[in-house]
Known about the structure:
The chain is about 45% helix and about 15% strand. With about 240 residues, the protein is of the alpha/beta class.
Amino acid sequence: MKLEGRTALVTGGAVRVGSQICLELARRGANVVVNYRSSAGPAAQLVHELGSLGTGALAVQADVSRAADVALLSREARAAFGQVDVLVNNASIYPRTPLNTLTEQEWDDSIAVNLKGPFLCSLEFGRRMADVGAGAIVNVTDWAAYRPYVDYLPYLTAKGGIITMTKAFARELAPKVRVNAIAPGPISPPPDLPAEEIEEARVGTLLGHWGSPEDIAAAVAFLVEGSDFITGAILSVDGGCLIA
C-alpha cells in the first residue's frame, strides 16, 4: 500500500516515537491523524509541522482505553479525511512496578493503555478497513516481551499480549487487512532512566548503541509500503538484543 493520498492514524502520536512516526508517514504523502491523551500542546505543534509538509493533519484528544473515546476518534478522523487506511497502535505507558509494591490499579492501568487500547482501536478501524476492502495495522510491542526483565511485569505482560493479538487480528481480518507489529529494543531512553541502566541496555545490543525514533518510524513505513505480502509478522528493531 502506497501512503500517497492515504490517511494514517497514530495513537500516542504527539511526542517521542509517535511524533516521528507521524512525520515519516506525512513525508510519504499521507494525511495524519495525531491521537493524544494529555499532550495537547505538543499535538498542536506537531499538526502545524505536518501541515507544512503539504498533507492534511488533525489532532484528536482521546483515551484509547475507553471504547467511547475510540468511537469519537473514529468519527472525527472520518469526518476530516474519510476512510482511515493505516492504524499505528503506538500509545503506551511504561511505569516501573516493582513486584513487592505492585498494586491492582497499576496492573489495570498498564493493561488498559498497552493492550486494551490497541484492541479497541484495531476492532474499530480494522472492521472498517475490512468493509472497504483494504488497510494496514501496525502495532508496537517490545523486544523484552520475549525476554522479560524485572520491575515491569504489567507492561511486559501487555506487550506479550500484543504479539498474540497481532497474529490473531491478522487471521481475523485477512485477506483484506494486513496486521503486523514492531518489537523495538532500546530506543530513546526515558529521562528518569538511571545512567547505569542506559549503559546496560547499550552494551546489550549487538550493534553497540541505542536506536532512535526514526528507526521505528522507518520500520512502520516499511510494514505499510514495503510489501503487500507481509501479515502476522513481528519485526524486531532492537539492534540485536533478542539474540545477543
